[in-house]
Amino acid sequence: MNNLTKLIIKSPNIKSQYDYIIVGQGLAGTILHFQLLQRGKTCLVIDNNLEKNSSLVAAGMYNPIVFKRVTKGWNVDKYSPYLAPFYSKMENHLNTKLDFPINILRFFKTLEQQNDFFSKTEEEGFSQYLISESKAVTKDLPVKNEIGFGEITKTGWVNTVSLLTQYRNFLDSNGIILNEKFEFDNLVFSDKKVMYQGISAEKIIFCEGTFMENNPYFKYLPLVPTKGELFTIKVPGLEVDKILNKGFFCLPLGNDLFRVGATYNWKDLTYETTENGKSELLEKINSLLDCDFEIMDHQAGIRPTVRDRRPLIGLHPDFPSLGLFNGLGTKGVLIAPWLSNHFCDFLEDKSPLDKEYDLQRVKKRK
Ligand SMILES: Cc1cc2nc3c(=O)[nH]c(=O)nc-3n(C[C@H](O)[C@H](O)[C@H](O)COP(=O)(O)OP(=O)(O)OC[C@H]3O[C@@H](n4cnc5c(N)ncnc54)[C@H](O)[C@@H]3O)c2cc1C
User: Fold this and answer.
1) 3-class SS at 267?
2) Which domain holds residue 248?
3) pLDDT tens for residues 50-76?
4) Ligand 1: which of 330, 335, 343, 357 to mutate, most ligand atoms within 8 Å of CB?
5) Which of 55, 265, 325 has most ligand 1 atoms within 8 Å of its beta carbon, as the pocket-test mutant?
6) 230 and 296 fall within a common domain
7) Pairwise CA distance, residues 238 & 256, whole Å
8) CATH number of the domain enclosing 41
């Protein structure tokens, strides 16, 4: 039994009183819960185990580079060093391998892309991410490699399905999760306390992903959900230990299986896979692979993206016992570890919330 487990079992008021209640056990709720536990806080999770959870569909990749003009992602120098030690702590806690650091091979479609990439390898601040002379061997790979490729490091993927299911087992076995839908009619609160079905806490933090649109207290915030579809394909003969990218990703999972995606759709916000999504993915694959493949699975999910592409975290402007940790968008795996730590510092009165993340940057109409 580790320290965190002992802490929960020892708490005498475990069933009626917590420091925090967290609603939602996607990537956001899971990581925030782990951070709070590490600080010795007691937290109850409420999650209805929806299959529509975006984190269970996600490819789970992290990549510090924005390929379009070969720039560094927003605040990536803050997030990137925090990532590996954080997931390693979670791996130890859950006794499960979660983080798979592997490089990306970026195949160029134009000479301009090639020039942009190689000129950046010389620039200060990029050398830790871009490999100037890649030693990767592609000549025996069944791929269409017209203009060459560059290699990016400090990239990889986190198995979000293992992360969420293993963490749920941990929550279940310690009796700190209610497997049910959170009902807003049952919430009673003052400035200092919340009460839900006879359970009290200092604060309740909502981590509902795109389901925030059903939250009467936070639905005024500008979430602009983005649907994404991806495939799992089988490609016998494509033996590669790097993520391939040619305007889309092809992520090796082992046993000849690859995750391929993703699409971006702001109009169709159903959770169904579509023929349009399928043909878009097939076109992408055919622009890269020069061999046969078989589609094993086709999935769709909805990313909780925000209009200004910044996360939405903080406390409600009128009701300070209600908090939010949301808006992880397309980069939850990279951002959530650092951001949850920053949020916990704020919740525990150690430091102010950085304004660029604070949900109070969005003015609430009275
Ligand atoms: C196709 C696709 C590919 C992606 N690829 C990547 C990638 O490669 N890398 C990356 O970093 N990100 C990726 N993402 C984005 C990533 O999925 C999100 O950033 C992240 O998972 C969001 O997590 P979340 O916890 O905010 O939301 P979710 O994972 O959706 O979790 C929300 C949870 O809240 C619960 N909930 C909501 N309302 C209630 C209620 N009233 N009562 C009880 N429970 C409730 C839901 O059941 C759900 O479990 C991808 C997304 C998609 C769709």
Assistant:
1) coil
2) 103-154+226-303
3) 667 899 999 999 999 999 889 999 999
4) 330
5) 55
6) yes
7) 7
8) 3.50.50.60
